[in-house]
Design a protein that fits this description.
The protein is an alpha/beta fold and 378 residues long. It has a single domain, classed as Divalent-metal-dependent TIM barrel enzymes (TIM Barrel), CATH 3.20.20.150.
């Protein structure tokens, strides 16, 4: 995707001074270090902050430190740290340990119990409920309006009338706080990140169950953060695709839809046809796990890709595993070199989902992914 000068300028904010005065004690002396730089020989490598979900502190300030320590200068920011910073949600502790079981994950992945294939001599094992596919189910539920960290996990039975009333009251309270959010506070968040050398190219807070006034606020937040696009899970609802795409056009901030292994060469056809404000936030690792040709998709739809996720997965014939970079079948090197050769400006987003080795953590593993990108683009 080729951005306008205005849009690409937003991605370059990491090299500019802060736009506002900032009390640096907010993020502590730990950030007093060299500014990160993951613009690698013309390719902007970033990460989605979901990669750090296993870290102990999920605040916006701690998330920024994880990003800087990883050597990343541009990000897709998940909504939880933003909501906490803006007072829209209560503080939460760290996420799951590790990055999920070694390998499954991704909505729509084939059940390995039905396969006879193997990868590197190891036969496919029966699928297990694990962090990766539970997360995918939760994201799918959120896209349908389920929301919540536990969405899509099941096994909890029907809510009582009291539980439903409590949930409705909580949703109404959150909506009230969202509609009253201070854009000055949002700009302060942006300044904190920019001052540390990190630009925010996308934020993930949107879902299709939101009312028009809520959607309007989300786009205002995205714009105030300096984003070129806001992301959410892909929906099949044509009315929603048209509605959100039209909001994107009015705000001059694209809406980009994320895919798991349901990805195909035609999966975005509806979205692209219904509004010029719609773009892809395709996951090219999951694309491989769904049996697709990631390079073919990139070459055909590059002008419609706002950003893309990278991870190393194997094909359905090889168990659709989620592995450390360089040990799977996603053509990560070729993807990055294709972007570099064509001077495309869409960010390549590291998404850490493989199992974190014993003794390591998410920051160290993202550092390894950045190093992989540097070797590929040398």
């Amino acid at each position: 995707m080729r951005y306008t000068r205005r849009e690409f300028g937003k991605l370059a904010l990491a090299t500019a001074p802060a736009i506002a005065l900032l009390d640096r004690t907010v993020i502590g002396a730990a950030l007093a270090q060299a500014r990160p730089n993951s613009l690698i020989n013309g390719v902007q490598v970033g990460t989605i902050t979901y990669s750090f979900r296993s870290m102990p502190d999920q605040s916006a300030e701690a998330t920024l430190k994880y990003v800087v320590d990883s050597g990343i200068n541009a990000i897709e920011l998940m909504g939880a740290p933003v909501e906490r910073y803006l007072g829209l949600s209560e503080p939460r502790g760290g996420g799951r340990a590790g990055g999920g079981a070694p390998g499954r994950g991704g909505r729509g992945a084939p059940d390995p119990a039905t396969l006879t294939a193997s990868w590197n001599g190891v036969a496919c094992a029966p699928a297990q409920p694990n962090a990766d596919n539970l997360a995918a189910a939760g994201l799918a539920a959120a896209a349908r309006g389920g929301g919540g960290r536990g969405a899509g996990r099941g096994g909890r039975g029907t809510q009582t009338p009291e539980q439903r009333a409590a949930a409705e009251a909580a949703a109404a309270d959150r909506r009230k706080r969202l509609l009253a959010v201070s854009m000055d506070k949002v700009k302060a968040l942006r300044a904190m990140y920019n001052d540390a050398g990190v630009s925010i190219y996308a934020v993930k807070m949107l879902n299709t169950s939101m009312s028009d006034d809520e959607v309007d606020v989300i786009f205002n937040i995205a714009s105030a953060l300096g984003c070129t696009h806001t992301t959410l899970e892909l929906t099949e609802d044509e009315a929603q695709l048209k509605r959100l795409g039209d909001f994107a056009l009015r705000h001059k901030v694209y809406v980009a839809y994320h895919t798991h292994t349901q990805g195909s060469m035609t999966i975005f056809d509806k979205a692209f046809a219904l509004s010029e404000g719609n773009r892809a936030n395709v996951d090219l690792g999951h694309f491989v796990a769904g049996g697709g040709d990631a390079l073919a998709f990139l070459n055909k739809f590059h002008a419609k890709i706002a950003s893309f996720h990278l991870k190393d997965r194997t094909t359905p014939a090889h168990c659709a595993l989620n592995l450390a970079w360089g040990t799977g079948e996603t053509p990560i090197t070729q993807i990055l070199q294709t972007v570099q050769k064509n001077h495309w400006t869409m960010p390549a987003t590291i998404e850490l989902e493989y199992a974190i080795p014993e003794g390591s953590d998410a920051v160290k593993e993202v550092q390894k992914c950045v190093a992989y990108c540097r070797r590929a683009l040398a």
